[in-house]
Amino acid sequence: MTTHSTPLALTHPRTWRILFIVILLGGGAWMWVSRPAPGRDIAPAPRTGAPAPAFSTETVDGEAVRLGDYDGQVVVLNLWATWCPPCRAEMPDLEAVWQRYADDGMVVLAVNQNESASDVAAFRTEYDLTFPVALDRAGDVGRLYETSTFPTTYFIDRDGVIREVVHGAMPAAMIESLVRDLLED
Questions:
Q1: Against a cut of 0.90, is the pTM above it?
Q2: Domain that holds residue 72
Q3: How many domains does one find in the chain?
Q4: What is the pLDDT of residues 37-90, one digit of tens each?
Q5: Rounded Cα gap, residues 158 and 106, in angstroms
Q6: 106 domain residue, yes or no
Q7: Strands 162-167 and 152-156
Q8: Residue 87 CB neighbour total at 10 angstroms
Q9: Inter-residue contact 134 to 80 (CB < 8 Å)
Q10: Strand partners, 77
């Protein structure tokens, strides 16, 4: 016959109090260490109805690009990665919408997340993309827009206000409908 017993240390109330205090102190230390630096504001996450956060980066060709370069235009800001299957599936639809509406004051700005210029350039060539493709090598734009899924697409009106945020790939009809609505406003 085998008997199992709980070690006395785990059943003693003092052990639980000490463990609770250690966890509480550890949590407090974590909150202290992970707090923002003094004098540094935390920007709210971009949301529908809010101004699109400004950023600057460079295109895959090494040219400077800022979101502000497109003031007065409808902007489809797409945050994506070459390894992302939904991103790959969506790119031809973004290109088709760009081709159809570019002359009407709309731009697709695809900002790649954390990949090399050579990988992104090869992707652009493979998919025959003609809209601006930018690099976010350090992930700054992704952090600014709090991107946690790829693709994430922001539809920004002519006044620079986010009108729609879509997480995940969209069908072509949805992209076109959202763009058309913004162009008509």
A1: no
A2: 56-184
A3: 2
A4: 454 445 556 889 999 999 999 999 999 999 999 999 999 999 999 999 999 999
A5: 9
A6: yes
A7: antiparallel
A8: 23
A9: no
A10: 109, 154
Q: Please give the single-letter amino acid code of residue 143.
A: R
Closest by CA to 92, choosing from 164, 176, 148, is 176
Domain CATH code at residue 139:
3.40.30.10
125 and 64, same structural domain?
A: yes
Measured in degrees and rounded to the nearest 5, phi and psi for residue 173 equal -60, -35
Terminal Cα-to-Cα distance of the chain (whole angstroms): 81
- Domain membership of residue 45 (yes or no) is no
At residue 25, φ and ψ (nearest 5 deg) are -65, -40
44 located within any domain: no
The first and second tokens of residue 15, run together, are 């052990």
User: Any idea how long the chain is?
Assistant: 185
Same domain, 64 and 126: yes
Question: If you search the block for the tokens 């709980």, which residue do you land on?
Answer: 6
* Residues 121, 91 share a domain: yes
Together in a domain, 89 and 140: yes
pLDDT digits (tens, 9 = 90+) for 133-171: 999 999 999 999 999 899 999 999 999 999 999 999 999
Structure tokens that stand for 69 in this block: 């370069």
Q: Are residues 20 and 84 in the same domain?
A: no
